[in-house]
Amino acid sequence: MLTDHDLQNELAAAFREQAGPVTATAVGTAGIFRRAVRRRQHRRVAARAAAVTAVIAVAAGVSVASRTARPALSPSDKPPGLLLEAAVTAAPPARAAVSGMPPYYVTTNHGRPVAEVRDSATGRTLSTVRLPQGIDPKMSEITAAGNDRTFVLALSRFPQTRFYLMRVAADGRSARLTPLSIPPLPAGEFANNIAVSADGSMLAVAIQLSGGRHGAVEAVSLATGAVRTWTTARTGMPSALSWADGGRELGFFWLDDGPADGSGLTTASGLWVLDTTAPGSNLMSGRRIIPEITGVDDVQSAVLNPDGRTVIASVTYDGTEHVGRGTVVGGIAELSAQTGRPLRTLLAVRAAYSADPGHPGWYIGACDLTATDATGSHLLVSCDSFGRLDRGRFTALPGAAPQMAIAAAW
Amino acid sequence: MAGGDEAEFEAFAARDSGRLLGFALLLAGGWQDAEDLVQLALLRSAGRWSTARQHPEAYTRAVLVNLARDRWRVRRRRHPETLTGDLTQLSPAAAGDAAAAVLDRQLLLRACALLPVQQRAVLVLRFWEDRSVEETAAVLGCTAGTVKSHTHRALARLRLALHDTPGLITDAERKEASC
To answer: What is the C-alpha to C-alpha distance for residues A381 and A393, in angstroms, rounded to an integer?
Structure first.
């Protein structure tokens, strides 16, 4: 059986064999710079022309609403998978969709050592807070902490991860970061994800141990710093923490390495729920309510909604049959926590065909479930683009590259 | 656009396009695609040279990943051709241990080609370019946690793919894998 180390070595050798002899001579670079300059000039002209066209269209009273409305599913559109078979939620009107939406969200900027407070409606930056010196913003994790003006951040300055409280003014235009008086993660442990319970008293931390083979989950009292730890002999990593049922249940998404013999069979992956009132320290003592793989659907990530009765999951169709134009091949689904059955499809990602002669076929995208608000009605997701998903209505937001996962919370 | 910019860009392209081509080849899986990707990525970097010039290789690499992702298509409907043919020619029984090792690597590369672009990019950066999790995150513009997650999923999928090769996994194991 291949161990991780063997597999990585084999992979490196395979890569060397394929790409080792590559030289630059295969790529003609002459004239590229001048072509780029010409393209940019051409785009400026085209943009001006498009702006004029748009003005004319509006003046003529042309409505594009009917063309952008969500098309109804026809029989040929029927999703082939199991978790996306529920009807796509009819998006409510914008005003109803955003009712109760948190006023802003907090995110870290990968390019600069700052945390940003952004307007939920527009994505515009309202204020920025400089992170402590030496912090790597890409290693940060963020969660809302009991209300929509208080956040907890896990910030890593190698080799240690510390926790900070961020308080945001009511208008979002100023914010302050202060260290929390709870123990930092020791060297060699990294926070994959964090989540604060609804009452703001407990911080859960999904921990990846250095070397990558073992993970653990901790619950830390924000008042006393007391730590409770759940571990497992299984190899894998926890992520996507979620609290439910008033802090009694703690959900985590477990990605399993498989048995210790390295066979890689992912028998334990999926959304697990721990009863935090039960004694013991076995991470796997709870129950797995959503497996990673259901039929031909692959759950990328899933969290419990605060009521504990439903689950929000990012799902990708992983089968081979019945993919055609408009087929739902991925998205965000609401599932029953009791049965695992799909209840609603909140956001559908549809297959698109490419005639690219190198790789003709159907394109299947995946979604990153970035954050949920305290009610589970408002999500931050990154599918084809980053944005918010309010009761089935998606609105793109600026500040994140398309299809890139970022740390954010609201 | 000053002539100095053009000279600077061309020096960068001459110096780094080979490395970028290797990276693109592992992302795209084929020479023609790789060359197209590098050409287009260089074109885009040149178009934004005032920004890209700060870290031109990193910038162009990020563009390459985005372009490759745009081109990512479900491989299941791809022609089953080339690799099948190669694998037949590389029968381990006929060619001995060395060929078996090559065959394993061909299987790995084929399995790699079926991964989503982002996962493939992570594997290439981590295990071909030997970059750390943090460096990989910087190149891809994502969090370290995302890099770890992609690595984890990709390696698990590669293992499954290898085990899914007829003769390498029992029915019982396959049933267990689908639980």
So the answer is: 12
